[in-house]
Amino acid sequence: MAKSRASIRDVARESGVSLTTVSLILNKNDQRISDPTRQRVLQAMERLAYTPSRLARGLPNRRANTLAVLVPALQNAFADVYFGEIISGIYEAAATRGYRILLEVARREYVRRKEYITLLDDCSVDGIFFIGATAEHRWLKDLDGSDRPVMIVNNHFKQWALNWVACDYPQAGRLAADRLVDLGHRRIGHICGPSDLVETSRELTEAFVGRLAERGVRIGSSMIVEGKFLVDIGKLACDELLARDPGLTAIFASNDKMAIGAYQSLRAHGRQPGVDVAVIGCDDIPNAALTDPALSTIRLNFFEVGATSCRALLDMIEGKIDADSKPYHERTPVSMVTRGSCCEAASIVSA
Q: pTM (2 decimals)?
């Protein structure tokens, strides 16, 4: 993988001046800057092979008034409710500000040719949103510390300095734990997402297990099984949990699809969701309210996380937010939605 392009921050660091000083020199508004300082900055640019982005050059009139949304190369990605809600939120916020949306898929050739960088550097788009990005997408390191206007939506990475907006997954885990403990459950299983690839999935699981421990309920690693965010794998994960503890009384799944898979598993084992085992999902997709029983879940407003990420990125592009000193990070609120799948542990024991 080629080395990332030098950023305006790199130039400031290399020449020992402020970001403002570098920007003034780039925009030829440097009458008050001494010639030695100017030369030091220009020499740093040359050493770093720095090519200023349109934002660094201060060219607001060259905006394309277009934003790109990049999604993974998954089958029917645009038809998935997760991607659909986020993209809808981005579109609504962008349209309100007079911007268009360009949809792109991160196919292998697209990534190999670094077209996501070309879009920005040739001013075809003003900013890019990355949805569904995971640790597998190592090409994102090309943008690490860059001054290019990009936003990771509903995930983030410890290893790269990138802007992100995500749902408050730690709070989601705590809400699920509190609800189950309040209902008297102590034998609890957890169907998690791929924590090694998705940071928000790891946060959710850690917060859930941690809050249970705070409330006096400890679950070992044997009662945490990965379901890969899919219905069929969620069913297999629930099968495994029941094999490990046939007497469990509650399950928390890291998304609603896996919770629906848990329903299938429980019924196959002769146990009724919401009667014999309490089930909580996470997302509140439209089908959650249509299951039998209706699924209790943590509501993550994907439309709002899309809209919030769009407003933040546009504020950066238009100079209303300074993201030069450090990346922009924000979490959107979540809430508990209690429906028929939540039952008290006491009713299970007495049944």
A: 0.81
| 261 touches 227 (CB < 8 A) | yes
Which of 65-74, 84-93, 202-211, 262-271 has the least mean pLDDT? 65-74
Helical axes 81-96 vs 302-317, angle rounded to 10°: 40
Quickly list DSSP for 297-342. EEEE-HHHHHHHHHHHHHHHHTTSS--SSS--EEEE-EEEE--TT-
> Nearest 10 degrees: CA dihedral of 34, 36, 41, 46?
140
Residue 325 near residue 110, CB atoms below 8 Å: no
Q: Give the integer Cα–Cα distance in Å for 173 and 206.
A: 8
pLDDT at 350 over 50: no
For 40-84, give the DSSP string. HHHHHHHHHT----TTTTT-GGG---EEEEEEES-TTGGGSHHHH
Other CB atoms within 10 Å distance of the CB of residue 36: 8
CA distances from 33 to 24, 25, 42, 149, 182 (A): 9, 8, 13, 27, 64
Prior bond of 246 cis (ω within 30°): no
Pair 303, 285: CB distance under 8 Å: no
Task: Tell me if 211 sits within 8 A of 182, measured CB to CB.
Answer: no
In the three-class reduction of DSSP (H, G, I as helix; E, B as strand; rest coil), residue 124 is classed as: coil
> Which of these, 303, 233, 329, lies nearest to 90 by C-alpha position?
303
Cβ contact 163:310 at 8 Å: no
Q: Residue 277: what pLDDT?
A: 98
| Parallel/antiparallel/unpaired status of strands 296-300 and 334-337 | antiparallel
